[in-house]
Amino acid sequence: MYQTGIVEELSKDMAKIRIQRSTACGETCASCGMCPAKDMVVSALNKPNAKVGDTVSVYLSDAKILKAAFLVYIIPIIMLVIGYALGIKWHESENAGILFGFVALIVSFVLICFLDRYLKRKFEPSITKII
Fold this sequence. Notes:
The chain is an alpha+beta fold. The protein folds into two domains: about 70 residues; about 60 residues. The chain is about 45% helix and about 25% strand. The chain contains two helices and five strands. It has a five-stranded antiparallel sheet with strand order 3-2-1-4-5, with no helix packed on it.
């Protein structure tokens, strides 16, 4: 996925870029006013050495976006279901299943936090060119 933005800040090999958020409906936000903030700031690898104020093209592959979404949304649900099933199997009680499910959910959030630190560079967008 390619996005266009303006470089606002530089630090080492990274740049903070203000990108205009695209709408989910594909229309202009003025038509309904229901969309959240119009722009967002992202950190991206600054390979072409863009300067502050440059308009740049930023790329993050769709596969990486889907992997990150899977980690954040699907893994906790899977852990919740597994915890619930194990709680019922081991203690033959629905209350134990609920407790084990929520414990597994919390464990999944902690694991995701640690994975975020480890995989941060893997899921970062990069500047492809200065426009």
